Amino acid sequence: MSTSLRVLIVEDDAVDRMACRRAFAAADAGFDLLEADSGELGLELARSQRPDCILLDYHLPDLTGLEFLAHLNQDAAPGTPVMMLTGADSAAVAAEAMRLGARDYLVKDVDGYYLELLPGAIHRMLREQQLLDDKRQVEAQFRTLVEQMQAISYIAELGGSGALRYISPQIGLLGYSPAEWLADPALHGRLMDPAQRAATLAALQQSRRDGSPLHLDYRLHARDGRAVWLRDQAELVRDEQGQPLFMQGIMIDITQIKLGEQALLASQQALRSLSAHQEQIKENERKRIAQEIHDELGGLLTGIKAYIAVSIERAAAAAAPAEPLLAEAAGLAQDAIDTVRRVITDLRPSVLDQLGVWAALEWYAEQVERRSGLHCQCTVAAAAAELELDAGRSTMLFRIAQEALTNVVRHAGASNAALQVDYADGVLELRISDDGQGIEAERLLNRESWGILGMHERCRHFDGELKITGRPGQGTTLQLRLPLDDQHEY
Question: Where do the Response regulatory domain residues begin and end (predicted)?
Fold first, then answer.
């Protein structure tokens, strides 16, 4: 505010104008006075001179004070602060003047005490006007900033209603104006996806009732039918004393992000299905190769061994010494037969197809113990043993157990391992633990650890969950949880 204030006095009574001049002069506060003895002249001076404020009498020869205010705010000098001078019995006039834009008023008492208050009242009115202007400027800057953002911003009341005080023009993203949105509090809920509506409204209401932070993703249907995904985030705003005021939030359009996530999930599912299909092809091929080796190569080796045995028996019957090479050939043929059996078992153990996965797991634990010296205990709970899993899940469980025990033998340095199978509440659980050196965290996070990655993918194809935990020196535990529900056969 400048040190010299320009005050326009609009007063038709010359004596009253003189009294006002004396009051301002006595205040010695640097007032420059402009005077008008009619409403029209006052409006012209207000328009041309742009005073800091106007001191307005209600009774003018050509206009009433209320008419003056109407013209002033319409086309003369809108926004100029006005102090109204009224009679002692004019409370209604003062109220109407304030409604039309007067900033303050003084009652003209017969003893002229109002003149002593006049300079101070003018200063107070202008200070209030400056504060109001500053507030409006800050609000305008804030509104401009908010409305330039891509997000929809809003202010919501606290409490059960959660009514909105404000919503930014970006609500046009959904095809609605701020006025339409604020006029219909139920519109927000009606636009929600029916499958999400109850849970979403409950979360919104709880946040606005408790003042708790909100972070929520949900889908709305725009006026034109488009599905729009929004991320709704809100925080509680408090005053300087820490008292809660309202919730301030933003809604961000994340439709493209959600579409990308859906496309990624679809791609992952397609890759997972492809991987499972490839695994099935591989298992079928292993089974076919194992069968051919058994039927053809195994048969040939068995025939060769039989011929050699017959030759040795004939030589013995003729009391002739057997050819030493024949005995050696018989031993080599047996070694070849044993190798073929081992290859067939590695490709596809026949016990898995003939006796089922539980017998196959027990058999494989015995094989591991016999071949490696690792003490391997297999326990299948009675509830699990009663289950008859389909071929796909049976193969998955066996291959994961095979991979896990192979890793124990190769990397754990363990003396003991335990394989436990349980079933409860529709969930089958396979747990394999050892007392070895413990798997390192780096290996668990290594995306190039194809054995671990393969176990995870096999498990996920059947909606299972696989966890591998380990601590240095305290061994490693693999836990597979497989929900069965109605997916297994009894």
Answer: 6-123
Instruction: Specify the pairing of strand 104-107 against strand 82-86.
Output: parallel
pLDDT of residue 74: 82
Please state, in angstroms and as integers, the Cα–Cα distance from residue 275 to each residue in 261, 460, 478, 487, following that order: 20, 11, 22, 20
Residue 228: count other Cβ atoms within 10 Å of its Cβ: 18
pTM higher than the cut 0.85: no
Q: Which residue has the tokens 């058999």?
A: 363
pLDDT grade for 146, boundaries at 50, 70 and 90: low
With a CB cutoff of 8 Å and minimum separation 6, the contacts of 268 are none
Asked whether residue 255 carries a pLDDT value surpassing 50, the answer given is: yes
Whole-angstrom Cα distance, residue 450 to residue 458?
Answer: 12
Cα–Cα dist 255/227, whole Å: 8
Contacts of 392 (CB under 8 A, 6+ apart): 276, 280, 462
How large is the average pLDDT for residues 440-455? 64
- Residues 16, 57 contacting (CB under 8 angstroms): yes
CATH 1.10.760.10 correct for 149-253: no
d(CA 337, CA 441): 43
Residues 6+ apart with CB under 8 A from 341: 298
- Give the C-alpha separation, 419 to 431, whole Å: 6
**Topology adopted by domain 5-145:** Rossmann fold (3.40.50)
Name the packing angle between helices 255-292 and 450-461 (round to 10°): 100
